[in-house]
Design brief:
76% of the residues lie in helices and 0% in strands. The protein has 16 helices and no strands. Helix 8 runs antiparallel to helix 9 and helix 10 runs antiparallel to helix 11.
Length: 270
């Protein structure tokens, strides 16, 4: 509020209402937060924080965001929030090229931003551009440390293993490093186990994948990978047990669909 423009009476009132709206969000008084945020937008259509808090309040009430998002995009189209809303809208419609363009705009303003970069990776994958996803993940992996580097490394290793021309050796080196630093993380053990499976080391794969299932019994991917591994090891009983867990009929996840397909080749348990 020390800025001359912020000290103007109109702006001061907006910031006070915004502060109250933020407090209402913290107290989970979301209808009040929605009303206060709407008042700031009505007073000044280009008030980005008002649009942001309005969307937070609506999201917290599980209300439809279409109207609020559309108003924000029209009012503050070149704001970072406006571009994020465009990303969401295009992604929902399957317009991945447009979503990628908006994500690149956001990333150009904050190069190397992890959340934006990982979302762009997801968009590249959905747009069937795996090489671009690997390129971005590789650059991000080299620039990060600690748990963030591990998360990025896990995604990179899995992407390298799933590529049209898999680089299993590089994937194995990265996944091994990640698991060494964070041995208790189920997703990391799952990735290393699946890479071992793809490298033809089913026994080692079983060890890592069993650890992943124990750490996260609800993981569809880990159960599917372990089921495939047991099938390769000649143990149809345990293969079927894990594949049945993965083949959740309510799930449209890729691994759930694959598990349902593999189950058709394994006789029912007696």
């Amino acid at each position: 509020l020390a800025r001359p423009d912020a000290a103007a009476p109109t702006n001061l009132l907006l910031w006070r209402k915004l502060a109250l709206a933020n407090l209402a969000v913290e107290l989970q008084l979301f209808p009040i937060a929605e009303e206060l945020a709407a008042q700031t937008i009505a007073a000044r259509a280009d008030f980005v924080p008002g649009h942001a808090l309005n969307i937070v309040a609506l999201t917290s009430q599980r209300k439809d965001l279409a109207a609020a998002s559309g108003e924000a995009i029209r009012s503050v189209p070149d704001s970072t929030m406006g571009h994020w809303l465009k990303i969401s809208q295009h992604q929902t419609k399957g317009e991945f090229d447009q979503a990628i363009a908006a994500a690149n705009t956001v990333l150009s303003r904050d190069a190397g931003h992890v959340r934006t970069s990982l979302h762009l990776v997801q968009l590249f994958q959905q747009a069937q551009r795996p090489a671009d996803a690997v390129k971005l993940l590789s650059a991000l992996y080299e620039s990060q440390t600690g748990s963030v580097k591990a998360i990025v490394g896990n995604d990179l290793a899995y992407s390298l293993a799933r590529a049209d021309k898999p680089d299993l050796n590089t994937a194995f080196v990265i996944a091994t490093s990640v698991v060494r630093d964070f041995p208790g993380t189920a997703a990391f053990r799952d990735t290393l186990g699946w890479i071992e499976y793809l490298r033809g080391n089913a026994d080692k794969a079983q060890e890592h994948l069993s650890g992943a299932v124990l750490a996260n019994p609800g993981s569809i991917a880990a159960h599917y990978h372990l089921g495939e591994t047991f099938k390769t090891l000649g143990n149809p009983r345990w293969a079927r047990l894990h594949l049945e867990v993965a083949a959740n009929e309510k799930s449209l996840a890729e691994d759930a669909v694959k598990a349902r397909q593999v189950l058709q080749s394994i006789p029912p348990l007696k």
